[in-house]
UniProtKB/TrEMBL annotation, chain A:
InterPro entries: Ctf8 (IPR018607). It comes from Vicia faba (Broad bean). The lineage of its organism: Eukaryota, Viridiplantae, Streptophyta, Embryophyta, Tracheophyta. Coiled coil: none annotated. GO terms for biological process: mitotic sister chromatid cohesion. This is Chromosome transmission fidelity protein 8. Signal peptide: none annotated. PANTHER family: CHROMOSOME TRANSMISSION FIDELITY PROTEIN 8.
UniProtKB/TrEMBL annotation, chain B:
GO terms for cellular component: chromatin; chromosome, centromeric region; Ctf18 RFC-like complex. Belongs to the DCC1 family. The keyword Transmembrane does not apply. It comes from Vicia faba (Broad bean). It comes from the Eukaryota. This is Sister chromatid cohesion protein DCC1. Keywords: DNA replication. It holds the Pfam family Dcc1. The keyword Ion transport does not apply. PANTHER family: SISTER CHROMATID COHESION PROTEIN DCC1, SISTER CHROMATID COHESION PROTEIN DCC1-RELATED. Residues 1-20 are annotated as: Disordered.
Length: 137, 401
């Protein structure tokens, strides 16, 4: 059998999707299981003009950077056509392409809310504001 | 549903936001309203040079349910390997893709801080990677051998409409459904097998039938004093047709045993020159069908069978026969490279079952057609053979690993 790879992206290029990659697992508190829709995970911050990013999740902060992928990733969607008898008519639809990711490859650093002010006051404030909604890493 | 205007106050969202974060800004990362496993979303890593093939829809997955699917472009075949990751890969679609219901209502977080949101649709467990592989053409030979075209089929062509007679017959679409190869590789494979399209089906023609046609062609050429170096296609085809052979096979005979030396222009037909090597090999095969022969008697009969102007020489038989010494006699028997499997492991296993030790001179014709992407000929030998050289001035000998 054959499965065609369809692409409606047009001549130029496919729509870009984004990726945030981090070590370990993002684990919501048990109370949120089953109702994750719209739940905030954390705050992504780009402090300077460098491609360095921080991701604050609960009391943890991750530092990472934007990396260009050596080879792009295609996002494909399996589409089943149920028309007629041939219900096994499957097609792969290209829905997007990924060329960059924001990669956090280090372990998280615990943020302890001591009054000692460091250079990173802004993400800390955000972290405190959203800390109630979830927990991670 | 309504356009997601409420979140636009925060500067849109989704993948674009993630991509274009200005320095000093921050965005919120959240689960998408439709966050879930989304098993229908697959991530495939591929080389930049294949992107045009994607955009122009020249890619297709091929394989039967019991086979590992391969991805084919017009000219190449790729195996697909799933590579998992232990990292959390959070996938963010562009916002307009996720225009789905209710994400406007539940924007309580957005209202409190005016921040853009990148929404995670799924956690990707890994991606598929592509590895270039050789096409799986052995199955092609197998399928086409189910029902070869034989002499008596001429008379049965009326039955063609009958569904029964389709057993073991494959048209192009049947072949691409069954064979894991790109279109180009499949066409090349059909050519290498000397297959011919008859009434829409790709067929192998029974060798003794082709022998009959070639015999008539040669005899008639002699009778009519035609040069074997300048056969007029129309004349030859008409002559063979009047002898009762189908036109498509008459043409096939020229393709198999001759080379076109002149294209047809508006007035005259094509001109073909009989290929000495292919004709000689054909007759050698016919002789050895009966089993092994003493070298002298083989050569004698071979000379007798081939057209007078041709000089059968034993060098032509590379990759066709093996010789062995039994006492003082040298014997010849058929051992055709074209009858061997094309996967290196199977090929070498059969070769070493045939002979435990091979000289390079003998081995080379049986492996030179092997083609494994990313592996050189030396690499192949290193992987599948053990090379021994008794002394520096002796030729190396290859044995099984």
């Amino acid at each position: 059998m054959q499965i065609r790879v369809k692409c409606n992206c047009g001549e130029r290029n496919c729509e870009e999707w984004g990726v945030v990659e981090l070590q370990g697992v993002v684990e919501p508190q048990p109370g949120f299981q089953g109702s994750l829709a719209n739940l905030q995970i954390g705050t992504l911050c780009r402090p300077s003009s460098q491609e360095i990013y921080t991701l604050t999740i609960g009391y943890h902060e991750l530092r990472g950077s934007k990396v260009s992928l050596k080879k792009p990733l295609l996002v494909l969607k399996k589409v089943k056509h149920m028309d007629g008898e041939s219900c096994s008519d499957v097609e792969l639809q290209v829905v997007g392409i990924i060329r960059h990711k924001i990669l956090f490859k280090t372990r998280p650093k615990a943020l302890i809310s001591k009054p000692q002010i460091t250079s990173r006051e802004k993400p800390k404030a955000i972290m405190l504001g959203s800390a109630a909604s979830n927990q991670a890493v | 549903m309504e356009p997601p205007q409420e979140i636009s106050g925060g500067g849109g969202g989704g993948a674009e936001t993630l991509k274009n974060m200005p320095p000093g800004s921050s965005i919120s990362i959240a689960y998408h309203p439709n966050f879930g496993p989304h098993d229908d979303l697959i991530v495939l890593e591929l080389d930049e040079k294949l992107i045009p093939d994607v955009l122009n829809e020249r890619m297709v997955l091929r394989g039967q349910p019991d086979e590992d699917a391969v991805l084919c472009t017009q000219s190449k075949t790729y195996a697909m390997k799933f590579v998992g990751t232990s990292n959390s890969v959070l996938l963010v679609p562009p916002e307009n893709q996720s225009e789905s219901y209710e994400n406007q209502q539940k924007n309580d977080i957005n209202n409190t801080d005016e921040k853009a949101v990148a929404r995670i649709i799924k956690v990707v467990p890994g991606s598929l990677e592509l590895i270039e592989v050789s096409p799986k053409l052995d199955k092609l030979k197998l399928l086409l051998s189910e029902n070869t075209y034989k002499f008596d089929e001429n008379d049965m062509e009326i039955l063609e409409e009958n569904q029964e007679s389709r057993a073991g017959l494959y048209n192009w679409n049947d072949l691409i459904d069954n064979i894991q190869a790109s279109d180009e590789e499949l066409r090349f494979g059909l050519q290498a097998l000397s297959a011919v399209e008859i009434n829409g089906y790709w067929r192998l023609v029974d060798e003794s039938y082709m022998d009959m046609i070639l015999g008539v062609l040669l005899k008639n050429s002699v009778l009519n004093d035609r040069s074997l170096n300048a056969l007029n296609e129309d004349e030859v085809v008409n002559m063979l047709e009047s002898d009762g052979f189908p036109m498509v096979l008459a043409r096939h005979c020229l393709h198999l045993y001759a080379n076109q030396v002149k294209e047809n222009d508006s007035m005259e037909s094509c001109v073909w020159k009989l290929d000495e090597k292919r004709v000689c090999i054909h007759y050698a095969r016919e002789i050895l069908k009966g089993g092994k022969r003493k070298l002298e008697s083989f050569m004698e009969e071979w000379r007798k069978k081939t057209p007078d102007k041709m000089q059968p020489s034993f060098d032509l038989m590379e990759g066709e026969v093996l010789t062995e010494k039994l006492g003082v006699e040298t014997w010849v028997r058929a051992f055709r490279v074209s009858s061997l499997p094309s996967t290196p492991a199977e090929r070498f296993s059969i070769l070493f079952r045939e002979r435990a030790k091979w000289d390079w001179k003998d081995l080379q014709p049986y492996i030179r057609d092997l083609n494994v992407p990313g592996l050189s000929a030396e690499g192949l030998l290193l992987k599948y053979t053990r090379k021994t050289q008794p002394s520096p001035n002796q030729d190396p000998v290859f044995s099984a690993r």
